């Protein structure tokens, strides 16, 4: 090994994996730029990475068409009792799952180098941070982990001889026989893909996929599925939430944590440039928040990641100029289209379509082509420090105090633009019943309505009935220092199918009302579902929205909401006796208010 490892548990684990996976070599990562550059050199030499002439230090990768998104139906929470995993997770018995995966892991790294990646989720040494070690046979994973986590030999120093860490084992599942030429994106067939979590052991095993959330195990696997279990155990929150700082013209800061399902505009909101004069938005994180109660009794949040793994299609200088500036250079692009002059392109990036591209499958593309040039779930990986509106406190080890929680989803009807929860229990009910129309970030039919509680359905590492109870318990502990809870829907459409709200930078108008509610400076009217803005309470200065559109945006139709109730009940029923009684009461009260 190139670096001496002093940690006994880590040494034993490395030896165990070497004996099982049989790599040709073992390399301990140190997180240096030299190491990153060497990974890219290997990937370019293998035909995997394409250097982009137009973007310094940037590369384009094309995945196998079978390996383009998180594979939720191949993702498992493996606990000794099935009920601990709950009805929203795929469960397999730990002993039999390990047996199956050991069969796949046997000799799976032959012909490849095994990389050992020591990484910190959160600033190295922060009391809120956690240490993981990912073993992988993919240099693409090493390069992405460099951006998305804090990979460093300092992590090994922090581990010392005896300190614990979260072991994350990954293989692309494509051993390379001697003399055989590699393919640009090696991976296993779909039926051999396994993304497995063993929460009772804080252990992650992933096999067969080289893509994002299936292979970068610090991301959804550790930072949400395993961390959510640790958070419940230890009394904190690990959430699928962006974190932003909003500053009003008087200099008052508000910290907002917001949960939306993937591809519902989280990154856009996290990097929003307010259209309202004098308001300032700064990004702390765009995807994951870890929150602990501080000595002041308030909830303090860190972004455990150090980069953005963002959805490229739809990102443009119109929708998210700060993201576009973030990805000017030193970026890893995956499944985007390639321009003739050595740049990337995706749908929604420019109004004018290029005359010719090479699409994400490596084929010629013109505006007449039927297929999309970039995959709908094409991605960019960029370091957070490159974001022009990154908050100076984004790496503050103590975190930032959260004032506001926002839940939301993509709904073309029924749900109004914004409303406030009556109280904490009602806010938990809003989070627990959140629903969104599906997008290409999830495998499955696009446009179906899917209940996605707290935007955590694919990411909660234990029974979600218990997860709801944990949120209620946290509210009890926070008392009057609990953040206020709101629900938003930027995606409501007219009968003609047109968006009623301009969205993007104008979402600052909704956030202004939310902040003014926290300050008790803005009016609200009670409705059956929550507190809605009073007429004229939303700042629409400079906007030309017809009054009938605003009426529709804030409309709560009791008939439509009564039709939602059976679906909410059916959703709650799947949790059986694990559903907190306090949420049953919330549903009963909603029924009463609807009349």
What does this structure look like?
The chain has 595 residues and is of the alpha+beta class. It has three domains: 8-48 and 75-234, Phosphoenolpyruvate Carboxykinase, domain 1; 238-307 and 392-594, Phosphoenolpyruvate Carboxykinase, domain 3 (Alpha-Beta Complex), CATH 3.90.228.20; 308-383, Phosphoenolpyruvate Carboxykinase, domain 2, CATH 2.170.8.10. The chain has 16 helices and 31 strands. The strands form seven sheets. Strands 1, 4, 5, 6, 7, 8, 9 and 10 form an eight-stranded mixed sheet that branches. Strands 14-12-13-25-29-26 form a six-stranded mixed sheet, with helices on both faces. It has a five-stranded mixed sheet with strand order 2-3-18-23-17. Helix 15 (558-573) runs antiparallel to helix 16 (581-594). The protein is globular, with a radius of gyration of 24 Å. The model has no long low-confidence stretch (mean pLDDT 96).
